[in-house]
Design brief:
Layout: H1 2-7, H2 11-27, H3 30-34, H4 42-60, H5 65-88, H6 93-119, H7 125-134, H8 146-160, H9 163-167
Length: 176
């Protein structure tokens, strides 16, 4: 019992892992790849997973210390999954660190840019440009505004969810 208390993950870690699992589940919706023309590639999936993680992290900003811990745990789960994915793809141990550094830089760039673009809402110009530059970087003629509308609906849905719900690891996504 004492060891159970010592080794039991903190509530923020449990919540962060659950939120990451919810991001993964939502990001696997075939609609992104079939209807919204998100490339069904490593890069396309990276962008959609990252987008969902960033939306939750953006929602948790400035919500107090427990939200900060949960957001960090969400990022930790995301980074661990990226590391695991690289290894499963056959990237050697010596290369994983370099690739993770590049992915980390890309992630933090996305966080900064999405946060800035979301802060300008209801003006969607910056958010639309960011989505086109990242998610649709290699796509000719992406579907007009479909993913932008999805992101706006998710942001609005997340904003209406109680912080306590997110801090317990529960999130309700609007159907993709």
């Amino acid at each position: 019992m004492i060891l159970d208390r010592i080794f039991r993950p903190k509530p923020a870690v449990v919540a962060g892992r659950a939120l990451y699992a919810a991001c993964v589940e939502q990001s696997r919706s075939p609609r992104f790849y079939a209807d919204l023309a998100v490339p069904d590639s490593v890069e396309g999936r990276f962008e959609i997973y990252t987008l969902h993680v960033v939306l939750i992290m953006d929602r948790l900003v400035s919500q107090g210390p427990e939200a900060a811990r949960t957001s960090q745990a969400l990022f930790d789960a995301y980074a661990r999954a990226l590391d695991d994915a690289l290894r499963e793809m056959g990237v050697g141990d010596l290369s994983v660190g370099k690739k993770m550094r590049r992915l980390g830089e890309a992630f933090f760039g996305r966080v900064k840019n999405y946060h800035a673009a979301l802060a300008t809402l209801p003006d969607t110009k910056d958010l639309d440009a960011l989505i086109r530059r990242t998610v649709y970087a290699d796509v000719e003629g992406p579907p007009p505004d479909a993913l932008l509308d999805y992101v706006l609906r998710q942001k609005q849905g997340l904003d209406t969810q109680p912080t306590e719900r997110l801090l317990s690891g529960l999130v309700s996504w609007i159907a993709a």
